Amino acid sequence: MGEARSFQERLQAVLENRAQYLQEKSLPLLKNNLRVYQTLFENIYNILIRKSLIHEDPYKYDHRILELSLPPTSSFLESEKQEELSRRLSAFHNQLDFLNGNFSFNLESLSLETIKRILALVQYIQWQGFSGVSSSTNTAVLAEFVGRVRQGGDNISNSILSDSLAQLEAATRQILAQLKDLALFQREAYKLELRRRLAELAPDLLADRPGGPAAGVEALDKAVSRIKPLFLQQLRGRPFYPELVKELLAEESAENREEVEGEILARISPVQEKPAEVRRQASHKSILLEGIRILAAAEAPLSDALRKSFENKVLMENRRQSFGQRIRRWLEKLVRGGPEDWSVELEYRDAATGAQRTEKLDLNLLLGNIQNKAKLFAALGNKMSPAYRRLEAGEEKQLFAFLTKNIHDLNRIHRRLEALGIYFKNEMPQAERGKVKVVKIELAALKNCLIKVNKKKHEYASLKEEEEQMKKMGLSPEPG
Predict the structure, then answer these.
(1) What pTM does this model have?
(2) Contact 225, 246 (CB under 8 A)
């Protein structure tokens, strides 16, 4: 019994050291890798939605998730491929959102059962064997749809897909290794608690050595049957793992017990990292390029809104005016010798303070600036344009600054276009207001674009912040 206590005390000390290592270093890295995993998956998911190969679940955000669970993995009919894969990927995305947004990454929360669920979730799509002939139905169909995108000749999307798939394979490998280490710790912590309980409640079970070399399956099963009621009585609410009980009994009764105990202690001792090793930081450039692609998609609704605004301007210019108004405008144009100065006062509500604001602008200059922005976004949509190629070759800091500036510009344009529509309505005579072109659909499309591109910006910023925190702890994420 003295030897048993000695081993248990040493095991307790090693587990405490391991717990500190996991909590301070391994778990933050696991959390970061899982967030990277989600971002890389979203790159692929969003491209498939944009290409109309799958569709976003309209009830996606109505599903309230209370715990981790695996979406369906069963086979489905060929005719159901698009609909079923759309539902499953949406559910998978929700689970990743819950894991990265609501889950507590600590040893208390990460039980063996939870680790098992995260393992299954990370391997829901087989990124390490991503192929159209995969044994996983979900992986095979997703690989087929990704193949369709690659055949379409969209080099930007193809580049993002290739980069994301390669990084997902690497991220999956790292996550699985981290979860394996975590599971090892939890298994040994579970067995240590069981050792102590058995020593108090049923010392004869250990003394009988039911797991010895001569013991068969029947003897082990009988021992487990005796232990189970004692366990359930003393450890209510804790799961009972028969396989771990058998493992414990085999260790306790091994002929080379001291050697086995030494292996257990060595297996769970914290890994000594090499301080001189310098790890290369993961690149998140693909996230920024995806954000720029989303910006490029704003060109179509922006151009449509601009066309309608020009038509409204012409409508106002041709409206019925008094003889004196027409003479005054003619004289102003004659004196200026150029385009007529057309000042407008646009009213809007400040989103930050809720206060009503007024902005005085020249209408011709305003529409000209919007037109220039639409041309820029059109160039970004062309992978061969000088503008896009310069950005693609740029550094992350440059891309982030470009994205931030254009998000700000597009927000301002959205606000001004909305206020300009109200201005045109108010300035037209009551009888002719029905002729004014409304830009409600275009504004909604621009707003949707802003929501999506802001999400990419925040994803990138969040990952960079995680990296900085990891540096402060003496860690750097492995290359993705």
Answers:
(1) 0.57
(2) no
